[in-house]
């Protein structure tokens, strides 16, 4: 049972790296979209875009590569 706990900690540590990169991207995108918004609802839509920016990035990359 002790080996299982160590294994879970290792997997958790490896997933945090990607989460940190996503968090920095989210903050940067939210700052950009909200600062360029001209209205309150533009800021709300900008925040939603900031949450889903990786989806658009991967979609455009796959479209560019012809997948």
Describe this structure as you would to a colleague.
There is one protein chain. The chain has one domain. With 67 residues, the protein is an all-alpha fold. The mean pLDDT is 79. The longest helix is centred in the first third of the chain and has 34 residues. The chain is 88% helix and 0% strand. The protein is flat and about 35 Å long.
Describe the structure using short key phrases.
single chain; 67 residues; 0% strand; mainly alpha; flat
What general outline do the C-alpha atoms trace? Answer: flat
Extract low-pLDDT stretches: none
What structural class is derived from the secondary structure elements? mainly alpha
Q: How many helical elements?
A: 3
The amount of helix comes to: over 70%
Q: Residue-averaged pLDDT, rounded?
A: 79
Distance between the termini: 43 Å
In terms of quaternary structure, what is this?
A: single chain
Q: Tell me the major beta sheet.
A: none
> How many beta strands in the DSSP annotation?
0
Summarize the entry for a quick read.
This protein is mostly helical.
List the helices and strands and how they pair.
Layout (H helix, E strand, L loop, with lengths): L1 H34 L4 H12 L1 H13 L2
